[in-house]
Amino acid sequence: MRVTFAQAGMPLSMGLFFTLLVVGLNAKVPSAMYSGLLAHGVPLIKATELSHLPPLGYIFAAFLGLNPLKSLLGPSVLSHLSAAHAAALTSRSFFPHLIGPPFKHGLVMILAVTVVMSVVAAIASALRGEKFVHGHDESIAQKAQLHHQPHHVRRHADHVGVGRRGSGRARINEPGGATPTRRPRHGPERQR
Fold this sequence. Notes:
The chain is mainly alpha-helical.
């Protein structure tokens, strides 16, 4: 059951964290993209169009180390810009610096939710009470049951190992217990 919850919880938590990341990006990337493109001379219509693209695509482009603005703006827009603005927009540093603050905002949201979840889990764990071991209670009940049986039944139970976990062997070196049996020897010891 614990493994099932762990395997179900991992994709759920990843889905939750990516959802929070996308929400944070959707809140900040459009305005950052719009103002950054206008500051470098991109026409208002094109800057508005690019600012409304899904920001998750921008994040994956950044993870791959790509600057998608060269292909998104196209030669028709880049040719009308000054050489300095065109070089700045298509450089490897412009795009990461443009989406860096919105990405940081999404990460802060994720970390805040993670801290809240961890505090809730710690409180729930503290309120659970002291450690409960199931096997210990079972062994006490088995010992009590054997103790209340008649003497001849208890000797028989001791002989066949009833109440012992995982064995049908007799108790050895106890009154009424069986004597140990010799195991067959293997290899060179067998010839002795």
